[in-house]
Amino acid sequence: MRTTxxxxxxxxxxxxxxxxxxxxxxxxxxxxxxxAAEFAAAGVKGITVWRDxxxxxxxxxxxxxxxxxxxxxVSLCRGxxxxxxxxxxxxxxxxxxxxxxxxAQLLGAPLxxxxxxxxxxxxxxxxxxxxxxxxxxxxxxxxxxxxKLAIEPLHPMYADSRSAVNTLAQANDMVEQLKSPWxxxxxxxxxxxxxxxxxxxxxxxGRLKALFAYHVCDWRTPTxxxxxxxxxxxxxxxxxxxxxxxxxxxxxxxxxxxxVFSTRxxxxxxxxxxxxxxxxxxxxx
Amino acid sequence: MRTTxxxxxxxxxxxxxxxxxxxxxxxxxxxxxxxAAEFAAAGVKGITVWRDxxxxxxxxxxxxxxxxxxxxxVSLCRGxxxxxxxxxxxxxxxxxxxxxxxxAQLLGAPLxxxxxxxxxxxxxxxxxxxxxxxxxxxxxxxxxxxxKLAIEPLHPMYADSRSAVNTLAQANDMVEQLKSPWxxxxxxxxxxxxxxxxxxxxxxxGRLKALFAYHVCDWRTPTxxxxxxxxxxxxxxxxxxxxxxxxxxxxxxxxxxxxVFSTRxxxxxxxxxxxxxxxxxxxxx
Lengths: 285, 285
Prior knowledge:
The structure is a homodimer of 285-residue chains. Chain A is of the alpha/beta class and 285 residues long. The first copy, chain A, is built from eleven helices and eight strands.
């Protein structure tokens, strides 16, 4: 590993909550109206909206409600899942992504996070090609709607069925290939922390002007479920201060987004949990 | 991904069982004596011995028993776990590895597989340094005993506590750094299948004369446990024929070792399971 200035100097604690964003999935038991009111009351400044929370709602009105609470709408989660075994399946995936772009425009979200997809048994190289083709097909709609897309590299343990993009290097490669100001990367510590090339690829992402989003949580030991056992920051082994130093050295000054999926934490009192999130943000991010 | 000759031509089915090895952990319910007799009767030619199966036994006598059954002893599993928070912990780890080398010599195993270790919360770069230092310290004993060591890169989902070596590139880097004929790599498809650099790193490992072992199983969708839900070959999405083609193009002609940890499969009749292993070897490896 290179020993740069950033590597030697982990970042300092954040001075306030002005860059704290929480994903609605983090407090999944709450309806979006409850989440918005509680987040705002706790001093949280940003919200990333998961599409399931919009079901049955007027999306434009929901966007106004969030802004009225003083919240910045950071992104919409999520689009993607481009690969499919058949052309019809890939067309259907594109239609869902076009719907997501429309929803983001209505909501007033400037960015959609992409979980890019994979088909078990289909060669990863083929899925990667289908992902690039799918994103390329959406670029006219992105430009028309003013909505960017962020490729989120997912942990290699999701390569079978959730994403064939498993390192930041691969996401950066795709950004270079697509050459569009509408396509960048969402860097999530849960997926990337183990990668020996992380520092250099974060720097490269910065040089590409492609670091669109930064997600935080923690990796627990032991982890008891592949999907729903993420830790709150401080509960695990991810060097959060170190990674934030690298991200900031790469020019990122956007929101630090708390994205935790945890059946354990969802089962707790969500008001108490929100207090813990804010404290963990101060202590560990 | 490069499109080489090997990439275009997955390997053919194996002509016979002459390169089939099974790890004792794969049929964990069996004592080593039962495993040896049943493997031999099924036409299996190699066995990799997990150290737990040697508890309470005369190790040299057990080695003779295995050879008397016509089995090649492929390797001893496992050494490693070099990193520790304290110098005393690292010394203790070295002592256990020296014991493993002595056991391998008694058993007549030419190779020890290393699960290299990690300490939750200790920087991965520090754990990697401790791993290299630990292996370097063992080289005199390896040479004296005639026992080689194989660094096994583990899937990134084990980076917290089981291994800070998570890609074949990292293992190859360590081999280059250690520059010893006693140190190479064990390549396991479960850990490596997702890696976009896999083909090129297998070729590099071959050029380094460091591809000491090849392990097979499969990745199930969904995977329900991070450790004990491996699939039998054919039950998952790993392109086994493709990876074997790469391994053989790199010059490997050793055993294909079946290493499956599965509470699901351990709960089945082990004689029926052994028949399925042999069939899966013919159909999918």
